[in-house]
Amino acid sequence: MDAEKVAELKNFVEQCKSNPSIIHKPSLVFFKTYLQSLGARIPPAVPKSDEDDGEHLDAKKSNLSNDDILDEDIVESDVELDNIDVVEPDNDPPQKMGDRSIEVTEENRDASQILKSKAMDSISEDKLHEAIDHLTEAVMLNPSSSILYATRASVYVKLNKPIAAIRDADAALQINRDSAKGYKIRGMARAMLGQWEAAAKDLHVASNLDYDEEIGMVLKKVEPNAHRIEEHRRKYERLHKEREQRKIEHARKQRRGEAKYEREMKMEQPSESKASDPEAASALKEGQVIGIHSAGELEKMLKAASKSSRLAVLYFTATWCGPCRFISPLFTTLAGKYQKVVFLKVDID
């Protein structure tokens, strides 16, 4: 290893010493797994508090307008989970399941029990594929036995085939909704796939039906991840809800402002109808933009607006001005909406 690489590695180790939490970054999961395989003790990740996130969001929002904040997308951060034992889904063809509609004879039931016993012997000798074969024969002879499906599911878990295990566990639970082993094995299989919340739910049901130490051990790994996911979801549900509430409040304030302006305009209308200068009022074109091409015209219109006690809005423009052409339709729309306001379009040339 050249000196430059050694220096970079030394610098990285110093960073880990000063901030051990960086080892929990998703991009460094391979390194954390390697350290744990050597027996290293990894400090637990320090979760970011909602208060810190709130301060960060507040600092960011301080530089944005209200419209920017309302339209800003909420980008969800990744949840730091312990995924060391998670495996890739198995893509094998579905296993034989048996026809539960057939009537099981006593002879077939007895034969299936013999096959189950052979399967248990194979499991004890770590001959898992042989155990699968025995249990599959047993299932075909007695497809209405919940325990046979649950037992085969447990072997699939040992073979790191969680999808096949879930299929068998589902079959066991369809036959017997109170199958503790069915819930237990399905919970373990879901944990292998990283389905932490579903796994925790199944394992808790199994624990209530028939608790054993293995369920407790799996729950110790599953529950922290499930809790982190739940807290993460609740946090962003709260943020989305708060943003929607802000949008509603913003729209309500806008409506109040518009209503207030309309009321003020209506209050001005009686005095306008009694304008003391009919000639001035007639010079003003209600609902239209009045073009101004000289200082004299501008002075005349401003005096007419003053005598009629009307608000005058001036829009300075030129034929060579590109932005002016873009704003012109909006100015015309406003003139049509607020007909008691005088809208003047002044040509600066």
TrEMBL record:
GO terms for biological process: response to stress. InterPro entries: Hip_N, Thioredoxin-like_sf, Thioredoxin_CS, Thioredoxin_domain, TPR-like_helical_dom_sf, TPR_rpt. GO terms for molecular function: Hsp70 protein binding; protein dimerization activity. Residues 306-349 form the Thioredoxin domain. The keyword Thylakoid does not apply. Gene3D superfamilies: 6.10.250.3420, Glutaredoxin, Tetratricopeptide repeat domain. It comes from the Eukaryota. Residues 256-277 have a biased composition (Basic and acidic residues). Residues 2-43 form the Hsp70-interacting protein N-terminal domain. SUPFAM superfamilies: Thioredoxin-like, TPR-like. Residues 44-65, 241-280 are annotated as: Disordered. GO terms for cellular component: histone deacetylase complex. Keywords: Repeat, TPR repeat. Transmembrane segments: none annotated. This is Thioredoxin domain-containing protein. It comes from Camellia sinensis.
